[in-house]
Design goal:
With 396 residues, the protein is α/β, with parallel strands linked by helices. The chain has 9 helices and 18 strands.
Length: 396
């Protein structure tokens, strides 16, 4: 009998995943990971540790599987939270959930599973894995979950072939409604538990308060950029540029200066904001809601635009540095001078967007068929062929 260690979080998804593993004949061992203790900045009632351990214990008892807790909080703080603070300080917006999967669930947690002589680790992610062979070599394919509304393949966009070879995703073929129905039929304690929100293992946070644990409050100006600011929103004559220059221009973020708009308010630190953000600006008197267009952490300025259709929110492309490109399918990697037709997303739950990936010496340019709203430095762009996630990278 093959052994599988599952990360049992106390939620309905991992609970049903554990049940399905046992039904499939695996020797199932459940582990609840404790990765965060500090509640500063965490919105009351959203901390994952409030009652999740108890629910996980009840589920394990109901299913008749062994259960234990492990504390990875020191490693989580160093690999995920410290990285998160560092990125915000530099004016970028990280995705801690992607890092959590790469660094914790499929790294140190996988190591723990191997120590227990397990062949696999399992999670309650809505995604699928398919094992095939190519040139007499085993290939792991990471596929989108069958439930289009819950597909979580994006969060696993940094996994390697080695990590995938030891991973199981038991609920990937199911709809969320089916998972709830199974939990309800079995009478699991997690059957009607709400889905978790916020930062992986931390919970839903008041971000400025959370970040103020390490980032300073520094007052600065909020500057409003008009919709018709010609220097940035004119139509460029791309025919006069070399192809490589066209790519750079399409992928380059807008760079504003204080003279480009007017001061309309004050903030407590540009590093507390992110592109596309609407709430928390404290700016009134406008005809349409304001949105963050850009932040300058060196000058401590937040640039905003009026209305969700402001042209400063939209770009045609993005860039990923060559050392930050990750191929889930290394056999599909392309090299400088080549291009690949793909679908891509720049955030979780965004519908896949048609695009072309152009590989250059300095890195990858993803140029979309349609302009994308809120392309944000520090986030991950994941690229697909069909429903298979083949690679990803950090947006610059």
């Amino acid at each position: 009998m093959k052994k599988a260690v599952i990360g049992l979080s106390g939620g309905v998804d991992s609970s049903v995943a554990a049940y399905l593993l046992k039904k499939q004949g695996y020797d199932v061992h459940a582990i609840y990971m404790i990765n965060w203790h500090d509640t500063e900045g965490v919105i009351e009632g959203s901390c994952p540790g409030d009652d999740d351990i108890l629910v996980a214990q009840l589920v394990a008892r109901k299913l008749g599987i062994t259960f234990e807790t492990v504390d990875f909080s020191d490693i989580y703080a160093k690999r995920v939270v410290d990285y998160m603070f560092s990125e915000y300080e530099k004016g970028r917006t990280p995705n801690p959930d992607v890092l959590c999967n790469r660094e914790i669930k499929f790294d140190v947690f996988l190591d723990k599973a191997l120590e227990l002589n397990a062949e696999f680790v399992a999670t309650g992610h809505y995604c699928r894995k398919e094992t095939t062979r190519k040139n007499n070599k085993e290939i792991q394919r990471l596929l989108a979950g069958k439930d289009n509304n819950k597909d979580q393949s994006y969060f696993l966009c940094q996994l390697s072939q080695e990590q995938l070879s030891k991973s199981l995703f038991p609920i990937g073929e199911l709809q969320k409604s089916e998972v709830r129905a199974i939990a309800d039929r079995l009478g699991l304690a997690s059957a009607h538990k709400k889905d978790s929100q916020g930062i992986c293992f931390v919970g839903k946070v008041d971000l400025p308060t959370f970040l103020q644990q390490k980032l300073k409050v520094i007052n600065g100006n909020i500057i409003l950029i008009p919709k018709d600011y010609s220097e940035f929103f004119k139509t460029a004559n791309y025919q006069e540029l070399r192809f490589s220059e066209q790519l750079k221009l399409l992928a380059e973020p807008y760079n504003y200066s204080p003279e480009d708009g007017k001061i309309i308010g004050r903030h407590q630190g540009a590093h507390f904001y992110t592109i596309g953000q609407r709430r928390g600006l404290g700016v009134g008197g406008l005809k349409e809601p304001p949105f963050v267009l850009d932040i300058d952490v060196e000058k401590n300025i937040v640039y905003i635009g009026e209305g969700k259709q402001h042209p400063g929110l939209y770009r045609k492309g993005l860039f990923i540095k060559k050392d930050e490109i990750h191929w889930v399918r290394p056999d599909l990697e392309i090299y400088p001078g080549k291009k690949l037709k793909i679908s891509a997303r720049i955030r979780y739950r965004q519908p896949l967007q048609d695009a072309v990936l152009y590989m250059q010496q300095e890195g990858a340019y993803i140029i979309f068929q349609n302009e994308q709203r809120g392309i944000t430095s520090g986030q991950f762009a994941a690229f697909y062929i069909g429903d298979e996630l083949i690679g990803s990278g950090v947006i610059r």
